[in-house]
Amino acid sequence: MSDLVPVIRSDAHLAHTGLIELASGVEIPCFESPERILAIEAALLADGRYDFEEPIEHGRAPILAVHDAKMVEVFEHAWTDAVAAGADGSRSYFPDVFLVAAYGERMALGGMPAGAHHRLGAHLFDTATPIVAGTWSAALAAVDVAITAAERVVGGAALAYGLCRPPGHHAARGMLGGYCYFNNAAIVAEWLRREGGARRVAILDIDYHHGNGTQQIFWERGDVLYLSLHADPARAYPYFSGYAGESGAGDGAGLTRNWPLGARTGLDGYAVALADALRMIVAFAPDAPLVISAGFDTFERDPIGDLALRTEDYREIGRMIAGLRMPAIVLQEGGYAVDALGANAVALLTGLRGA
């Protein structure tokens, strides 16, 4: 068996480009860009220890096992409906109205708009998740990337890296947001349960932001452990979830755990929280590969983060996780300091290899 680590990647993400987001009411170029993945690919290629592969198509069934069918249908048609209704096809699309909980309150609402682009407002929670002509195909490909990485590990690889773009951990069962459209990590966890023969799956989320979507999807599940280290939502996106007291409910009671981190947290503080999370994984005793939502927006120079991890710290984080002696499926989430992304990815994967 080859010592090269499988890296699953697709060019489909390149069409998800020219993105604009609204930050505090100001239109800015989206931090989530094709250059992120291109930088990581270049660093892995230069390193020489990675085997690049194209994903296998898996269709919609794995997506619909996790996401609401109405949301999927709205997402699929939002762009074409918007353009047909006269939207500028050269610009990112956002809905004008968002169906927040307070809209209906005690009213019995009687219907939904005909156009998917208007219905999108019932399935989107922010103004940072634009849709362009290539978004749908890119999101489908990201799911295929994630599941193909899982297949490589189930098939015997100790480690595989899914270069998913767009990322996924903010996407909930019926909701898009946070640059995310389909929840790649949640889809893989459910695939491991349904197709991989696993009874218990652990997801470790080390992105700067709380994975509100992953938490919501598995909130009441007793077969999936969700652990997240992230910036304290009292000051950081997504603001409304990721607090330490959130721990799951029903069959999932105690199987969600959050570690909100203070600004400028470095490796010392991060390692304390990570060690706690790793102990919980051991106690849960998964019988599936570990699913890692890997974000590098924890880096000290990330433009939208405020933690203080250095490139060399990711190697130590990888080593700590490798101490579990579990095969691992690493799925790309955030990280926006493009000039450092490649080195940070190589460092994490080197640590995960035990080197």
Question: Can you summarize this structure?
Answer:
The protein has one domain (5-68, 133-352): Histone deacetylase domain (Arginase, Chain A). Helices cover 35% and strands 14% of the residues.
Any overview of this molecule?
By secondary structure, the protein is an alpha/beta fold. It has a single domain, classed as Arginase, Chain A, CATH 3.40.800.20. 35% of the residues lie in helices and 14% in strands. The protein contains eleven helices and ten strands. The chain has an eight-stranded parallel β-sheet with strand order 4-1-5-10-9-6-7-8, with helices on both faces. The protein has a two-stranded antiparallel sheet with strand order 2-3. Helix 9 packs parallel to helix 10. The model has no long low-confidence stretch (mean pLDDT 97).
Write a concise keyword list for the protein shown above.
single chain, 355 residues, alpha/beta, Arginase, Chain A, eight-stranded parallel β-sheet, 35% helix, globular
State the shape: globular
Mean pLDDT: 97
| CATH fold name | Arginase, Chain A
Q: Under the CATH scheme, which architecture would be assigned?
A: 3-Layer(aba) Sandwich
Output the structural class: alpha/beta
CATH class: Alpha Beta
> How many separate helices?
11
Outline the low-pLDDT stretches.
none
Rg value: 19 Å
Helix content: 25-40%
The strand order across the widest sheet is 4-1-5-10-9-6-7-8
Taking the alpha carbons of the first and last residues, their distance comes to: 18 Å
Number of domains: 1
